[in-house]
């Protein structure tokens, strides 16, 4: 049916006078079938161009790499967020205690080393230690409470330098937690903006012992323009200590987690490493999903432009079969006025023309559904590729 045209007077060749002349030349007493065939010969539209467009509709969304390389990405120039990970390690005397025969400080250093060595490459790391000077005696309290130092300055992770930084201190003194959090705020002071995320992890086995207010410090850091999130990992902490540290984490907009053993500590750091990865994953995903949604809307518009059914808006296919149907119906009426067919055959002819219209509409609906399926498949393929690209970027 779609290949019957173009008719002699179809499309731009249509001329009422020429059509009337053609019909006047037909014999009287035509059957509905004979009349229909003659009208199709004259008026069947050329569906070839629009059908070719429909068949050539092959959507394919290029997700590019993690930063995006599609057209929308090029226009926006959006890059993944930079995540700064600041670790505050308690080096007070209590960290010299043992858990299952192992020194807590040794277990903490091992877990931290493993944590930072497996962070996404886009992450930057800082290590600040506190309570690492003096002893936990009253005589050394002032020295110890004033001791907090960024031993690994915020930057890209370097295994050799980070290991050396971990080896520079031992657990000896008091617990100036508030001062350490304030120090972290200074470390991150230049890290601001919508494309920057700052995350602080405090590893401690006890509460503030230097008279500071870690809750106030955490709240100030979180609510500053740095907008850092302060998480606390309590290592072998008693119930009272857990309650106090939990308040610090809540004030810092973060989470309190507890570890009883070295294995617990390692497991928690693995969980937190995945959370850091998800920050990048979310950024890459959001950027591509934004582009993908825009692409989807454009393709839906294209499908509607080809196969839409709204007569007020129109579509390429609808315009062709609607024009054809109107001309066929007008020609059928003209055959009656010219007494080429009787009323019985006129009604049968109209039914045949109406049936042709229904078949065209059925084709339109089927093809429209098919094109939407092609689009869905293309977008699903793009989503899978996006996840693979992000996984590769986070786990090179």
UniProtKB/TrEMBL annotation:
Keyword Ribonucleoprotein: no
Keyword entries, A-Z: Coiled coil
Entry-linked Pfam families: VWA
Positions in coiled-coil regions: 365-392
Organism of origin: Planifilum fimeticola
Domain VWFA: 84-276
Name of the protein described by the UniProt record: Ca-activated chloride channel family protein
Gene3D superfamilies listed in its UniProt record: von Willebrand factor, type A domain (3.40.50.410)
């Amino acid at each position: 049916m779609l290949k019957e045209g173009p008719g002699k007077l179809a499309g731009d060749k249509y001329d009422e006078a020429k059509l009337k002349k053609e019909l006047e030349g037909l014999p009287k007493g035509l059957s509905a079938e004979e009349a229909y065939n003659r009208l199709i010969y004259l008026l069947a539209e050329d569906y070839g161009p629009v059908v070719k467009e429909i068949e050539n509709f092959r959507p394919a969304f290029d997700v590019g790499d993690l930063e995006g390389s599609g057209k929308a990405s090029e226009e926006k120039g959006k890059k993944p967020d930079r995540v700064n990970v600041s670790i505050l390690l308690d080096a007070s005397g209590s960290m010299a205690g043992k858990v299952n025969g192992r020194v807590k400080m040794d277990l903490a250093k091992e877990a931290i080393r493993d944590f930072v060595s497996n962070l996404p490459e886009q992450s930057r790391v800082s290590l600040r230690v506190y309570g690492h000077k003096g002893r936990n005696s009253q005589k050394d309290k002032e020295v110890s409470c004033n001791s907090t130092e960024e031993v690994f300055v915020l930057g890209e992770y370097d295994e050799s330098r980070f290991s050396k930084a971990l080896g520079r201190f031992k657990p000896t003194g008091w617990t100036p937690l508030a001062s350490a959090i304030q120090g972290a705020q200074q470390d991150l002071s230049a890290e601001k903006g919508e494309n920057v995320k700052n995350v602080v992890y405090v590893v401690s086995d006890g509460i503030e012992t230097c008279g500071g207010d870690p809750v106030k410090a955490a709240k100030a850091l979180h609510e500053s323009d740095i907008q850092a999130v302060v998480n606390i990992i309590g290592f072998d902490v008693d119930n009272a200590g857990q309650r106090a540290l939990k308040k610090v984490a809540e004030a810092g907009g973060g989470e309190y987690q507890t570890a009883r053993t070295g294995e617990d500590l390692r497991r928690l750091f693995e969980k937190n490493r995945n959370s850091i990865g998800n920050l990048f994953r979310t950024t890459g995903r959001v950027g591509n999903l934004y582009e993908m949604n825009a692409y989807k809307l454009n393709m839906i518009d294209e499908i509607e432009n080809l196969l839409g059914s709204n007569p007020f808006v129109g579509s390429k296919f609808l315009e062709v079969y609607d024009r054809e149907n109107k001309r066929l119906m007008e020609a059928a009426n003209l055959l009656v006025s010219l007494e080429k067919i009787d009323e019985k055959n006129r009604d049968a002819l109209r039914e045949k023309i109406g049936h042709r219209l229904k078949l065209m509409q059925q084709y339109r609906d089927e093809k429209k559904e098919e094109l939407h399926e092609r689009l869905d498949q293309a977008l699903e393929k793009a989503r899978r590729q996006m996840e693979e690209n992000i996984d590769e970027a986070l786990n090179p």
